[in-house]
Amino acid sequence: MTDVKGHCEPRFAAVHDALAALLDRDDVGASVAVYLDGEPVVDLWGGYADADRSVTWERDTLTGVNSTTKTMTALCALILADRGQLDLSAPVAAYWPEFAAAGKGNVLVRHVLSHTAGLPDLSGPTAVEDLYDWENVTAGLAAQAPEWEPGTAAGYHALTFGFLVGEIVRRITGRGLGEFFAEAAAEPLGADFHIGLSAEHDHRVAPLIPPTSLTDEYAAVAPTGPDGATRKSTGAPIRVKDANSVAWRRAQIPAVNGFGNARSVARLQSVLANHGSVDGVRLLSPQGCEPAWQEVYRGDDRVLGTPMSWTSGFGKFGTTFGWGGWGGSLVAGDPGSRMTVAYVMNQMIDRERQEDDRGMEIVMAAYGGLR
């Protein structure tokens, strides 16, 4: 059995065993973490940071979590809302006047957060490099017409979510999403998570490993949520080689280019499940956390092709809220039990070819500890 390092309270031993089994079966390197009542009860890691299995996955290893990044971008919006600087029921154009073009004057901030704004695709960018030009991408979104009447339908905003929320944050604070996130969330909690990564951290990055039998040309040709359903997307196809590139790390793509590990993901998201505070540090009021689990839309998602429940920034699954990333990472929070579970790995799985229950195995093992 693969050696697993870290800390695990005895009642959560099943989480340790689940990670060890994954490392023996599907995973190359991975980390898992569980926070309960704002305190870490599981912080484990193991395996290797590279496909050749020559570099050990360490306590401070980071990797790209793809769309799990959206939970951090949503947290930024909820922090501003809790501070009274952002009204989730206000038109986006109240903060970003140019956005009212092409019939979008009635698009609310809540629509953007709940994937109901009608802007699931970027009409302009056709290459990954185009995504690195923040002003050009957001100007294009401001000029774009919605695909449907905002608020009446949902369609997963795979890339646009980050640019839309990020520009709202920038208009309010004068700072880029990654900078605001660092100042308002990551730094106060001492959480090692980054939206856009500076060069000083490059040596700690475990590159994403494409699914077995595929190369780093493997592309996210369609958004993939925890359900695994997809549709053909338009715009720039993102390949594993792009997500592993230095240019990607330096960019601001707040829907998808966050870097962290399970410890940092769980610590940050446990703020919401624990009603605003972690380890004695309060980021939000209890009321300020509620939009994370209050349903905004329920129905078929036009992009994912499956029934979904969306809150302000998160997918809702029974009593839990959270989201996952292309390849397998995920985070789930439960405000009832005040528990947050995160799973971050480097070995990707293609859900069209293979079932991927890795993250859910960790989540279910954590619930076993509660019982």
Can you characterise this structure?
It is a single chain. This protein is an alpha+beta fold and 371 residues long. It has a single domain, classed as DD-peptidase/beta-lactamase superfamily (Beta-lactamase). It has eleven helices and 16 strands. The protein has helices at 13-25, 70-82, 109-113, 134-143, 160-173, 177-189, 240-243, 246-250, 262-273, 286-289, 358-370; strands at 4-8, 29-36, 39-47, 63-64, 194-195, 219-220, 238-239, 258-260, 277-278, 281-282, 297-301, 306-310, 315-317, 320-324, 330-334, 339-345. The strands form five sheets. It has a seven-stranded antiparallel beta sheet, with helices on both faces. A three-stranded antiparallel beta sheet has the order 4-8-5. The protein has a two-stranded antiparallel sheet with strand order 6-7. α1 packs antiparallel against α11 and α2 runs parallel beside α5. The longest helix is centred in the middle third of the chain and has 14 residues, at 160-173. It is globular.
Biggest pleated-sheet summary: 7 strands, antiparallel
| Total helical elements | 11
Note the run of SSEs as H and E. EHEEEHHHHHEEEHHEHEEHEEEEEEH
Strand fraction equals 15-25%
The class by helix and strand makeup works out as alpha+beta
Write down the domain tally: 1
CATH architectural label: 3-Layer(aba) Sandwich
Give the terminus-to-terminus CA distance.
26 Å
| Global morphology | globular
Q: Can you tell me the CATH superfamily? A: DD-peptidase/beta-lactamase superfamily
Count of extended strands? 16
CATH class (first level) name: Alpha Beta
Stretches where pLDDT falls below 50 for ≥5 residues?
223-230
Q: In angstroms, what is the radius of gyration?
A: 19 Å
Helix amount: 25-40%
User: At the third CATH level, what is the topology name?
Assistant: Beta-lactamase
Mean pLDDT: 95
Major sheet: arrangement of strands: 1-3-2-16-15-14-13
